[in-house]
Amino acid sequence: MPVYNKLVRDLIPQVIEKSGSHFSSRILDKSEHLTEIKKKLFEEVQEFTETTNRHDALEELADILELLHAALPVHKATFEELEKIRIAKKEKRGGFEEGIYLIEDEDN
């Protein structure tokens, strides 16, 4: 039996059961949950960097977005609050749409 020791989506236990396999799992406490969300987020970002087509890129971005949604309650925050912060930062410093690549800053 493979050993995973990682955070999985909430319905994975049911998927495994329906396939006739057996598994072991446990519910993480809040601090462990956040730690595992961070690990999983890193894993999904790595997978996103390896995508070579639109479909795979969107699949990985959806996983990243789902992890952001999972992290918010741990911080007692909402997606609306996160979006408000994102918009404020964008208004102050801009977004990343234009692809500006800073090479150097002579004053620093």
Automatic annotation (TrEMBL):
Alphabetical list of CDD domains matching this protein: NTP-PPase_COG4997
Domain of life: Bacteria
GO MF annotation terms: hydrolase activity
Key words of the record: Hydrolase
Protein name: Phosphoribosyl-ATP pyrophosphohydrolase
